[in-house]
Amino acid sequence: MLGKLRSTVLDCRDPRGLATFYAGVLGGSLYAEDDTWVVLTDPTGRRLAFQLSPQHDPPRFPDPHGSQQFHLDIAVDDVDAAEREVLALGATRVSDAAEDNLFRVYRDPAGHTFCLVWGVDDQQK
Q: CA distances (Å), 73 to each of 2, 20, 26, 31, 122, in order?
């Protein structure tokens, strides 16, 4: 092993606002070095960091000429309840995304896509 993953970093125009959104989704604690870098440590110790990028353009998804670039899968027990909560926090549903009975696709307030997933174990894709 060469190293271990420390953080997943999301570029955005409002690091504190996006970190607060994901704290509402995942729980955990926020640490802000300044207005350009905010870290969310979730209750299991995983870190999401949010970095200021004034030129950030959200990915266009679904778009046959674009890509999500990456996305987060967030496991939930009750997808309908979780959907109400993420929408209340500022997410939007990607209504034209191909979905099945294991996930639903959303955009966070900065436009990054993420999925609510249910009924899967950690060994499945």
A: 25, 18, 11, 23, 11
Q: Is omega for the bond preceding 64 within 30 degrees of 0, making it cis?
A: no
CATH number of the domain that 26 lies in? Answer: 3.30.720.120
Residue with tokens 């606002």: 17
Q: Quick check: is 86 in a domain?
A: yes
Q: Give tens-digit pLDDT for 69-118.
A: 778 889 899 999 999 999 999 999 998 877 778 889 899 999 998 888 88
∠ CA 85-25-27, rounded to 5°: 130
Whether residues 90 and 44 share a domain: the answer is no
Same domain, 72 and 47: no
pLDDT band at 68 (very low <50, low <70, confident <90, very high): low
